[in-house]
């Protein structure tokens, strides 16, 4: 017996396809949507009509061309269709961004974080309220609805969204998603910060159209997101990608996970600044480290070269295992990328298999330090598009 076709699921998948085609090709003519989506004209027309009726898509007049016949109209995701909010929750700071439903940034903010769970939730709530309020001008039309919130956390997150361990926050075995939804009063989608950032690179950044890539970031820790065969690889329990806890110096610096010599004890922003202090260079952040290196400070330059070597050594194992097309340095690693890349490349040349290394591309994320908040946007967008609603 042939399996039954779920027509509602197919309609939803087709709508999502049209949504992303319009997001990536704003002011697109309807006649081009079939080519962009691979859907037939009748299906495309029906989906567009429904999305317009539901307020998700709007028409506008396209630039006039010298053509005879009815004037052409352009289609786009309506700015009034809704807001999305993304956040990066770190021990010291919380970074928040709001966007239109299409992912266009509207407002952003950075506020103090906390390792106290109740205080962190309170700060997050206040920060999101402020960003949402600033996202729509006073005295204008009614503000668009908040469609979803996505949050990236430096933690082991299982497939059910439970926080298993966040060494740098001091949290473990926490039902974080229900707590966030209760505190924020809105749909919340939460994931490991690096996996979220990898999703942002796939939707908005350097990895659009790339099937196999590794995304690396370093804030309070170091994380890796693996996209294999066009899908985010999560592993059996959802924990895949913890490159920050590969051992690079056996018996080395103590790590918050309880082990010693982990990569993140040498390459995260927190560890780089701590090591700089141990060597007589008090630096407030990686922007200051990059400035010192640019000014020729030999101590900071040596420290960043060492970090690059450790990162390249760890990355070579991922390259040998997964054979990616592309490696992206994101988050705060992008701030010091120019100073760690030479040593990183040298370590890859030494430790990665030559056929796998030969065509590997390394790029710095265009999303920079906002990759994780934009990953929150990617989580919120994916959640909005996947949950049944009157619009979709």
From TrEMBL:
InterPro entries according to UniProt: ATPase_NBD, HTH_MarR-typ, ROK, WH-like_DNA-bd_sf, WH_DNA-bd_sf
Pfam families, per the entry: MarR_2 (PF12802), ROK (PF00480)
Record keywords: Plasmid
The keyword Zinc-finger belongs to this UniProt entry's keyword annotation: no
SUPFAM superfamilies hit by this protein: Actin-like ATPase domain, Winged helix' DNA-binding domain
Domain HTH marR-type: 17-68
MF annotations from Gene Ontology: DNA-binding transcription factor activity
Family note: Belongs to the ROK (NagC/XylR) family.
Stated name of the protein: ROK family transcriptional regulator
Organism: Azospirillum argentinense
């Amino acid at each position: 017996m042939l399996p039954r076709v779920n027509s509602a699921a197919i309609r939803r998948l087709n709508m999502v396809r049209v949504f992303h085609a319009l997001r990536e090709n704003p002011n697109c003519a309807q006649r081009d949507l079939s080519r962009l989506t691979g859907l037939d004209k009748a299906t495309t027309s029906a989906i567009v009509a429904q999305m317009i009726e539901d307020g998700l898509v709007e028409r506008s007049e396209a630039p006039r061309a010298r053509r005879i016949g009815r004037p052409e109209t352009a289609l786009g995701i309506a700015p009034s269709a809704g807001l999305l909010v993304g956040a990066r929750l770190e021990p010291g700071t919380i970074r928040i961004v709001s966007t239109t439903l299409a992912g266009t940034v509207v407002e952003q903010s950075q506020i103090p974080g906390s390792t106290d769970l109740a205080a962190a939730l309170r700060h997050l709530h206040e920060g999101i309220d402020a960003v949402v309020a600033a996202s729509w001008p006073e005295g204008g039309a009614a503000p668009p609805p908040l469609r979803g919130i996505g949050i990236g956390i430096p933690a082991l997150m299982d497939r059910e969204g439970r926080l298993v361990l966040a060494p740098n926050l001091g949290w473990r075995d926490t039902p974080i998603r229900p707590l966030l939804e209760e505190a924020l009063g809105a749909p919340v989608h939460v994931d490991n910060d690096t996996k979220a950032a990898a999703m942002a690179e796939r939707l908005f950044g350097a990895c659009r159209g790339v099937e196999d890539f590794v995304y690396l970031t370093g804030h309070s820790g170091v994380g890796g997101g693996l996209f294999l065969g066009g899908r985010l690889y999560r592993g059996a329990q959802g924990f895949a990608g913890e490159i920050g806890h590969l051992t690079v110096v056996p018996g080395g610096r103590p790590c918050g996970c309880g082990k010693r010599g982990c990569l993140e004890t040498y390459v995260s922003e927190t560890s780089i600044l701590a090591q700089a202090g141990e060597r007589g260079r008090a630096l407030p952040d990686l922007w200051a480290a990059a400035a010192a290196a640019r000014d020729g400070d030999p101590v900071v330059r040596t420290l960043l070269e060492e970090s690059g070597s450790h990162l390249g050594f760890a990355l070579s194992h991922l390259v040998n295992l997964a054979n990616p097309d592309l490696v992206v340095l994101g988050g705060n690693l992008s701030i010091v990328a120019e100073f760690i890349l030479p040593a990183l490349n040298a370590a890859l040349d030494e430790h990665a298999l030559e056929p796998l290394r030969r065509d590997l591309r390394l790029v710095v994320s265009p999303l920079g330090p906002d990759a994780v908040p934009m990953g929150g946007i990617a989580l919120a967008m994916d959640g909005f598009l996947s949950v049944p609603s009157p619009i979709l």
